[in-house]
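During the first year of the project, the team set up a workflow for recording each protein of interest as an amino acid sequence followed immediately by a discrete structure-token representation. This format lets reviewers and collaborators read both layers of information side by side without switching files. As required by the reporting guidelines, we include two representative entries from the current panel. The first entry is reproduced here exactly as it appears in our internal archive.
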Amino acid sequence: MKEFIEELQTLNAGKIKENEPLANHTTMKIGGPADLYIEPSSVDSLKQIMELIQKHNIKWTAIGRGSNLLISDKGIEGAVIKLGRGLDHMDLQGSELKVGAGYSIVALSTQISRKGYSGLEFASGIPGSVGGAVYMNAGAHGSDISKILKSAHILFEDGSMKWLSNEEMDFSYRTSVLQKKRPGIVLEAVFEVVAGDKDQIFAEMQKNKDYRKETQPWNYKCAGSIFRNPLPKYAGRLIEEAGLKGYSIGGAQISDMHGNFIVNTGSATAQDVLDLIQFAKDKIQEQFGVSLETEVEIIGRK
């Protein structure tokens, strides 16, 4: 690792920190340290960083804005690559929108609606980055990323880079090929947006955002939806019917606003959250015979 860090520093490719607390980089404010934290300054610098990672056989993990993420109290081994300010570019040419993976999906939906383009209204209340949204096919209000994505620029584990079409991304409910078959990092995305009535588009976006504020605990430290919806049923509704809203373990609590959210009341550990997840899964299985699967990504040392 020492030799890797020394070579990395010569690249001048972005921020580098050892033993960086990852609680500082997640919306839940939970997570142990990264052996090495790297924030690339551009797509080109990320490519150089990945070449060094391959050369030194370093384990790596990519994160975005830290939503939909639960990081172990023991942290993450190897290098943690945060896709942030160096990958937050945006370019709109006609109906084609090219965006860097580090761009906030909420900010993007706001910017595009104000320009009079439709397609991203559903994302107005989704926290996180464009890269994360593409990776997991984020969605809400009856739409998702798969409905508007034309192609995604991916950096794979072996250091190769390729643009994948919508079809090649193999989207399904909250899932893409990057989770199922070919691990990689989303660098950029190209979306198809449609010109429309600016006031109508912005009103729809605002309605979605207001709905989230009224029904979900975004003013608390949380990671978004914890469980995938076992369609046609809904995880939050099952948890509410089981009487679990407000139930807590340690500093982790099932939100009393929405059953599919777990909030950090101030002192929660990742283990508290994991214990609460397991408790909820057991209760729902016992009462309804439904097996809940987590939507939140759980990563780090065991």
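The second entry, processed by the same pipeline in the following quarter, appears below.
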Amino acid sequence: MIRHIFFDLDHTIWDFDRNAQETLMELYDLYQLEKLGLRSCQDFIATYTENNHQLWAEYHVGRITKEQLRTQRFNKTFRQLGVKPDQIPAQFEEDYVRISPTKTNLFLGSEKVLAYLQKKYSLHIISNGFKETTLTKMNVSGLNPYFQNVIISEDVGVNKPHKAIFDYALNKAAAQKHESIMVGDSLEADIRGAQDYGIRAIYFNPLHKEKPQDVEWQINNLEELLLHF
């Protein structure tokens, strides 16, 4: 019987892409990026999103560091869009990191689902997000009351999918594998990480990507959880 539900935060509860889009639209105007030759804010957002997702995938498995991720994502984006290195705004990343975590867009049904599940289960967060931004997101979005523990990879010293972070999370929650389940959007970090550790996992797939054969359980919106728990 399930007693503990572990959630990923970014791209699962906190709508990372929507919050990033709002932030980038503000910064596009603030920095007057059209004067650098960036004629389309949407092209800028799309290019950044692709680069950011790729870099986060590399960060999950330890191929790059936090500093490399933050240094490369906008530098790479501006260069791809034809901005010369000496014209790239020096404070852009800093302003993005300051503003983005204060956004409060959650995936549809998040609060309804969490309020329901909280009455029946112990809920926890396991996040590969950076500590200072994760804590800000949880606080300003009003998510803290739903969760008993917030496990952040920077505190543990390893990222999902490393087994050690799942071991740490279950120990902190006083949970056993057979009574635990993981919900997340990342196939490698959340789903295969949990499955390799020995707990069941639910793949949150709002974009309706093709489901890999090794994924046992998939949902396309969070409210589907209400049908199963």
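For the second entry, the following points were noted during internal review. The radius of gyration is 18 Å. The first helix runs from residue 16 to 30. Both points are flagged for discussion at the upcoming steering committee meeting.
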